[in-house]
């Protein structure tokens, strides 16, 4: 029997770090955990909502069909505007939220951070603690599995062949300094009645080596045929 384990949890404490840093009494731990989930969900919903608004404005402002098709092509780059990681650090009177994002175009707009802080204050009802949100741009976006998964999702929703989308995602990793990548997609591929899984691998991927820094992502894609699952492993480096 195959004993499979999440590559991130397997390397926690060696090459992977915790995404939340805080201490709580055992009776208050569940409340802190739920608060973290609310913060992360609120940030993701805010970016998704504003991304839809900005894309709708582009389509409304452009009247000619040539410009619209050009925008659809360039919108494939908006997949890199996905959040790769949200770090939460809690102190007695302050909650520090660090958002790691590919290309933070939406959050760099005037008043975006203040609006997000107001939404978070309403969501978590923190009266005694103040929120401090900071944005960190990811140096190599195509080194992040979340961004590649979002890119594949965008291509599949635009009726691109799943094999072509997987190969293009692997080509994008050439821009980043990595040693290996594996992309696996499962479900009703191409609208076929029987679900199956397809996998493409390039380079090395030592999953059993704990000192190997491997990033992993599992991402669901909702299509007209049903839900597809994408898994991406990226072998970054070996310590």
Detailed description of the structure:
- With 239 residues, this protein is α/β, with parallel strands linked by helices.
- It folds into two domains: 18-52 and 79-135, GMP Synthetase, Chain A, domain 3; 139-236, Ribosomal protein S3 C-terminal domain.
- It has helices at residues 7-10, 29-61, 65-74, 112-124, 145-157, 162-172, and strands at 20-21, 83-90, 94-101, 130-137, 180-187, 196-203, 212-223, 226-238.
- Helix 4 (112-124) links the parallel strand 3 and strand 4 (130-137).
- Helix 2 (29-61) packs antiparallel against helix 4 (112-124) and helix 5 (145-157) packs antiparallel against helix 6.
- It comes from Holcus lanatus (Yorkshire-fog).
- Its main location: plastid.
- One of its GO terms (cellular component) is chloroplast.
Labels describing this entry:
239 residues, GMP Synthetase, Chain A, domain 3, Ribosomal protein S3 C-terminal domain, 2 domains, 4-stranded antiparallel β-sheet, 8 strands, 35% helix, ribosomal protein, Ribosomal_S3_C_sf, chloroplast, ribonucleoprotein
Tally of discrete structural domains: 2
Number of helices: 6
Series of H and E elements? HEHHEEHEHHEEEE
Gyration radius from CA atoms, angstroms: 20 Å
Top-tier CATH class of the largest domain: Alpha Beta
CA-CA gap between termini: 30 Å
Task: Give the overall form.
Answer: globular
Give a quick account of the main beta sheet: strands, pairing sense, barrel closure: 4 strands, mixed
- Identify the CATH architecture of the largest domain: 2-Layer Sandwich
Q: Helix/strand-derived class?
A: alpha/beta
Unreliable residue runs: 63-80
Helix content: 25-40%
CATH superfamily of the largest domain: Ribosomal protein S3, C-terminal domain
């Amino acid at each position: 029997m195959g004993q499979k384990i999440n590559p991130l949890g397997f390397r926690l404490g060696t090459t992977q770090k915790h995404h939340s840093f805080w201490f709580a009494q055992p009776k208050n731990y569940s409340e802190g955990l739920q608060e973290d989930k609310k913060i992360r969900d609120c940030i993701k919903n805010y970016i998704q909502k504003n991304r839809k608004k900005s894309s709708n404005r582009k389509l409304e402002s452009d009247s000619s069909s040539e410009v619209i098709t050009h925008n659809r092509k360039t919108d494939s780059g908006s997949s890199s505007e996905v959040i790769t990681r949200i770090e939460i650090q809690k102190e007695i009177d302050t909650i520090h939220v660090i958002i790691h994002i590919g290309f933070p175009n939406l959050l760099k707009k005037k008043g975006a951070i203040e609006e997000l802080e107001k939404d978070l204050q309403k969501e978590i009802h923190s009266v005694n603690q103040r929120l401090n949100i900071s944005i960190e741009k990811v140096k190599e976006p195509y080194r992040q599995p979340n961004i590649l998964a979002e890119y594949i999702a965008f291509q599949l929703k635009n009726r691109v062949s799943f094999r072509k989308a997987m190969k293009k995602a692997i080509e994008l990793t050439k821009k980043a300094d990595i040693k290996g990548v594996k992309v696996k997609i499962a479900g009703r591929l191409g609208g076929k009645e029987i679900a199956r899984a397809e996998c493409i691998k390039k380079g090395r991927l030592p999953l059993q080596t704990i000192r190997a820094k491997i990033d992993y992502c599992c991402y669901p894609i909702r299509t007209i045929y049903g839900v597809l699952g994408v898994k991406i492993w990226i072998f970054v480096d070996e310590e």
